[in-house]
Fold each of these.
Amino acid sequence: MNKDDSKANKKVEKRTIDIVHQGLAKRYRAEGRFKFYGLAAIVMSLLCLAILFISIVGNGYKAFRQTYVELEVFFDPAILDHENLSAANYSGLVKSTLRKMFPEVKGRSEKRELYKLVSPGAAFQLRKMVLKDPEIIGRSISVWVPADDDVDMLIKGYFSTDAAENARRLSDKQLAWIEQLREQGKVKKKFNTTFFTAGDSREPELAGIWGAAVGSFFALLVTLLLSFPIGVAAAVYLEEFAPKNRWTDLIEVNINNLAAVPSIVFGLLGLAVFLNFFGFPRSAPLVGGMVLSLMTLPIIIIASRAALQSVPPSIREGALGVGASKMQMVVHHVLPLALPGMLTGTIIGMARALGETAPLLMIGMVAFIVDIPRGFTDPATVLPVQIYLWADSPERAFVERTSAAIMVLLAFLMLMNAAAIVLRKKFEKRW
Amino acid sequence: MVFALLPKKSPNRDGGEVEIEKDLRVEDMEATPSGQDGPVLVSRENRQTVGVGTVENPRMTCRNVDIYYGDNHAIKNVSLDIGRNEVIAMIGPSGCGKSTFLRCLNRMNDTIEGCRITGEITLDGINIYDPKIDVVPLRAQVGMVFQKPNPFPKSIYDNIAYGPKIHGLKGSKSALDEIVETSLKKAGLWNEVKDRLDKPGTGLSGGQQQRLCIARTIAVNPEVILMDEPCSALDPIATAVIEDLIDELREQYTIVIVTHSMQQASRVSQRTAYFHLGDLIEIGPTEVIFTNPRHELTQDYITGRFG
């Protein structure tokens, strides 16, 4: 009986190593599959990112160049009144110049079509020239003025001339004039400085991103000045000094909840409290910054607390052991070590604030603002809102400007992230 | 000489010292072994302290100290004295509460949530748990060296100068330089680091880091130095250097050292206290503890039966 048992056992029983070998292939297969899934996920996300970037850059890169038309302007003393140069009829000057270039053009509607070839901005440009140097009156100067956005689109090849005349933005005559100018070498694409120096405009060729960028800068400055000190102070108190009881638990839960609140809710809060209750100005970067700091505060507090927690307790003990007070321990040892993490969290929060649109719509930063803001209370808009506004505009030329503005916004974000990495590397200490 | 000692724990706290002093006389008495040869050991079940915990003119005294972590009773009714210019070692298996007890001597346990202490610990006759006592000067007086070397992530110079700076001991730069130099010399580190005082302290080797921590502690000129397993992370050579250092420091400071190594305790200390699961089992001169333990638990430990 016993012998049979042991025999049977011997047959059934394998060496452990055999069992291990048996399962080995399956294990490696599972591992290979797992690796493949991970790799596929990464390839997928990189692909999506690449498509996104290619589409944005593909749409937007042409906006950095703008079509200009060369006009031979005679600064006619008859038109330009010496007494009141700033209010003179500069658009009349542009018109007379165009008429001179195309003397065959007669008739009202034809003339109107001709005038549409150059941007209304040409008149402003001439005005600026005259105001800068009144000596040029009476002389003839060749000036490059921005072409109208429709001409710009044609030159950039965005619409075909095959369509019926009434189905396109430029008539047969206008196309002929443009062709004529081209042959004379009077149409050229140049770097679009307007885009980087001007505020918003109804005319795409005159619209720029600078106003929104300055608005963003002011709003983010307010956000940083409010949320970084408050956030760090709150985190230090909660992490280092506060007793651990039900109240601090409650506060912690609420901070975590605030970080998850949709941003438009903060906008409504800003509208109700800052605008309606305190009566702060509408559309102001000051209020925008305050609303954005409400939104970034929980992010900064959470990141700062995590940074404080990651400071090894041995450093705290060492400081206390030589007789440092709690305050000295925090200021001399814990804060410097936690600073890189805090800065990273802050910059991530700021980057989120930079890209935020919804709460700013609520406090009126969505307004059409041409002037470049000069202070915290001037009406302003911000980059993402500018993108939203342009994306909403019907003109074809705003499509590429929208993409270009997105590129500018992304560049700012990358700059901020790079700053976060540099700061972290700089302040990081190893122990 | 036969030892048999069964001191009764004092029922009232104030009588603790008196009671133990009575035991001193008991020590000389002949025990009455019931027909056995050799020394009679106190049985394992008996958790009362064996030996004399008091010394004349003590620096620190602990009377009936109980420590709780929440509901956990970590130290049970411990009474002992720490004499002047002596090295007292605390040994015992892991989790016996020796580190906990050590950290109470300069109130480092204040930082631990839920830690509660009853009883009396005095430094030069002043109760350090008096609400009026400020922990900052206390910790300047009772310095501490930790198990893991924990230099600040600053330069070697700043590591040493930090304590004197925050206490405002020396104002001028030259005086501070002097403190740094003497502290490093006392810690036996000066020759190794004098050319790179501006280099980070974290770049030193483990043994050098620990000596740096000792130098940092003695820079504030404490009277008592608490060492919590200072050599547990070090190799034998670095350990030997630190043990020599402890022996030298004894002339100026009182040192309390917690150690896992019985050899280390026997090498550096004059008195040894053996802890077991929160009880102070036996205390006495080091050579007595290691050659003639009077408690079964002590004997088990030093003969390597456990721990």
Amino acid sequence: MAEKECEKIIDQVTDPRNLNDQCRQHIKVCSECAAVIACMVWARTKGSPTADLKPSQAFLDRIDQSLNNLPTAGTPGISGGGSSLLTWVLGIAVAVTVTFGVVTSLNHESASAPAVSPGKAIPAASDAANTAIEAENQLLDAQPAAPTLKFPSPADDAD
Amino acid sequence: MQNGENRDCNALIELAKKGQKSAFTQLVKMYYGTVMYYLLGMNIKHADAEDVAQEAFINAFRKIDQVNTSGSFTGWLLRIARNQFIDKLRREKKLDTSGSQFEIAEIPDDRTPETHAVSTAGVESIFADLKPRERVILELRVFQGMPFCELAEIMSMTEGNVRLVFHRLIAKLRARFEEKAG
């Protein structure tokens, strides 16, 4: 049998799934192929040609460390530390909303309540509201006054 | 890899998919040599190859759900290692990405002192003076029965070239076998 055909047989023989009757018959009569098969059987008994390289303990430790740092769940970032951050943000948002609501309602109450005469005792509940109003007034005072017209009004020339 | 080992490998992959890191560590031990020789075959230093191998294994664990046990785990793992190596070259700007497709086969195949030292470490071994790339081809073809077309894709070679390298390799082994037997 020609050399090329022997190569084909060897290609098939290296993958046992392809070993058919034709290959077996050929190996029986072809000493070249039989020698190659014997060589490969011998090579297999020697073990894998890549098995002599083994990972060092330091390498395995680094892999272990990296694997332990990976999230086990399929949602990286949102579990663990991520959820506690979300809780904090939601908590702060709720606190701000509640405070704003309380201040607004107290403002409404104080606006509708009768004026407190000086020297009269102020109820403790309205202290906070008064403080808020005072602060608001101070802010308004701090703002510049409304702009005044710098040119004469047309009504001035009418006379 | 023999059939028994294949079954073990599939069982380990299934355990790793369930999050068992110890099972994945076993896979690392089983495939370390193949991945390292594959990377050393790309003519990089041993220390660099270890860094790339480490990143490749970690990436493989992240993507372990994508492994199909009916396919070749080694092929999948080596593709990850190759991509990791290409990323490393890009990071270090050693790869010109402006040109056509990257061909690993174009990298010169001269052995570095490191790979030479690794190859000659086991003088008794019949594989002692084989190049890293030859070892990987032998492992994938003879021990794992990988088809030539897949082997060619993984090694970034044409199918014809892989067959040629394989037959030269067989001839080399045969000479050694007859020398030992005679």
